Amino acid sequence: MGLPRGLRLWLLVLLAAAGAGIFLALLSSAGKPYPGPRAGARNTGTSRVSSGPKAVAHSGTRKSLPCQHPLHLAIQRHPHFLGRFNFSTPVLLSGGVFTQELWDHLSQRKAPYGWQGLSRQAIASTLGLLNSSESAQLFAPRGRLRDCVRCAVVGNGGILNGSRQGRSIDAHDYVFRLNGAVIKGFEDDVGTKTSFYGFTVNTMKNSLISYRELGFTSVPQGQDLRYIFIPSDVRDYVMLRSAILGVPVPEGHDKGDRPQTYFGPEASASKFKLLHPDFISYLTERFLKSKLINTNFGDLYMPSTGALMLLTALHTCDQVSAYGFITSNYQKFSDHYFERIKMPLIFYANHDLSLESALWRDLHSAGILWLYQR
Ligand SMILES: *[C@@H]1O[C@H](CO)[C@@H](O)[C@H](O)[C@H]1NC(C)=O
Ligand SMILES: *[C@@H]1O[C@H](CO)[C@@H](O)[C@H](O)[C@H]1NC(C)=O
Ligand SMILES: *[C@@H]1O[C@H](CO)[C@@H](O)[C@H](O)[C@H]1NC(C)=O
């Protein structure tokens, strides 16, 4: 996703063929999948309405219970994933870390993994605005009783159409959404709560164009909502700076755009987060190192927006549920949950959905996340 229409045709993959052969490798299941976000104690069925821990929407005031299925524990038990997760990798980029050293380091790689060829001025001025401690962390500081941060990440997959997962999604402490996240008319299936919206300027604007007629007429907005910029281009730094300052975009691809039309009236650094290029690089290297990197499409390849959000949640939350992500039976469902007629899932050359699908399946088998399937 996120490519101009002309280019899309060009890049239309190739991977459709691979799609058939994707689901071969079955990982040994050292861990145990956990029964789902609403289940109570271990070994209870999935259908029981939990009488125990019930995460209620706004968590600031509620008394939190310990995690039933902390992902850290599942990782400890799983040698393969234990060797991949590195929780010391910084997730967000903020002003406090902008140094000559970082500049030298990041200018060696191209976006989204670095700053090669990008304007130092554009980057430095943006990072200079992300100088508060809030910019360095995703969540507001935990209250003393917050023992377990439960997150739902909602992809836009057709599997959610008719799923009736809305209440279960909204019951998480934080809900992540991305790109064409249509809510109106799909509340029963996808819920209404949005804590984070993740995007690149390119994917956001393409979603507003491509899915407008299907109901994506504006980006989710709200007082408690935070935006996660994925820095795939200098555009993202320039838009972010303008959004924080509350001014029209002064230069470049999006010149003249008013950020308020996307993100609402609040212009402040605390509203916006920026993924660290090193984090994207680490995720790609450790979790989604696609064979596409060594093809002609190598420079275009990057993990999908959904993958970046789900992996962000796995590095910041204690327990993660994934809804609307690709499953092995994806052919049963439309590309997106908000389509009116069934559209096949499109495999674009800039992402590797086959690899992502295998990763979600394996993380689910290992009990590190819970993947909604049906
Ligand atoms: C984990 O990440 C930190 C920060 O980037 C790095 O210093 C450390 O060497 C990494 N550890 C491993 C085992 O990869
Ligand atoms: C952050 O930067 C802004 C703009 O340069 C400045 O006004 C503010 O005092 C800085 N805040 C901190 C905590 O350094
Ligand atoms: C979505 O679900 C409804 C009812 O379950 C069904 O009628 C419709 O065809 C589905 N849409 C797509 C695009 O599959």
Automatic annotation (TrEMBL):
The reaction(s) annotated as catalysed by this protein in its Swiss-Prot or TrEMBL entry are: a beta-D-galactosyl-(1->3)-N-acetyl-alpha-D-galactosaminyl derivative + CMP-N-acetyl-beta-neuraminate = a beta-D-galactosyl-(1->3)-[N-acetyl-alpha-neuraminyl-(2->6)]-N-acetyl-alpha-D-galactosaminyl derivative + CMP + H(+); a 3-O-[N-acetyl-alpha-D-galactosaminyl]-L-threonyl-[protein] + CMP-N-acetyl-beta-neuraminate = a 3-O-[N-acetyl-alpha-neuraminosyl-(2->6)-N-acetyl-alpha-D-galactosaminyl]-L-threonyl-[protein] + CMP + H(+); a 3-O-[N-acetyl-alpha-neuraminyl-(2->3)-beta-D-galactosyl-(1->3)-N-acetyl-alpha-D-galactosaminyl]-L-threonyl-[protein] + CMP-N-acetyl-beta-neuraminate = a 3-O-{alpha-Neu5Ac-(2->3)-beta-D-Gal-(1->3)-[alpha-Neu5Ac-(2->6)]-alpha-D-GalNAc}-L-threonyl-[protein] + CMP + H(+)
Where is the major localization of this protein?
Golgi
Give the metabolic or biological pathway: Protein modification; protein glycosylation
Any single biological process term in GO: protein O-linked glycosylation
Record carries keyword Secreted:
no
Which EC number(s) are documented for this chain?
Answer: 2.4.3.3
Q: Please provide an example of a Pfam family that matches this protein in its UniProt record.
A: Glyco_transf_29
Q: Give the record's keywords alphabetically.
A: Disulfide bond, Glycoprotein, Glycosyltransferase, Golgi apparatus, Membrane, Signal-anchor, Transferase, Transmembrane, Transmembrane helix
Q: Which GO terms describe its molecular function?
A: alpha-N-acetylgalactosaminide alpha-2,6-sialyltransferase activity
Cysteine disulfide links: C151-C317
Q: How does it sit in the membrane?
A: Single-pass type II membrane protein
Enzyme class name: transferase
Official protein name in the record: alpha-N-acetylgalactosaminide alpha-2,6-sialyltransferase
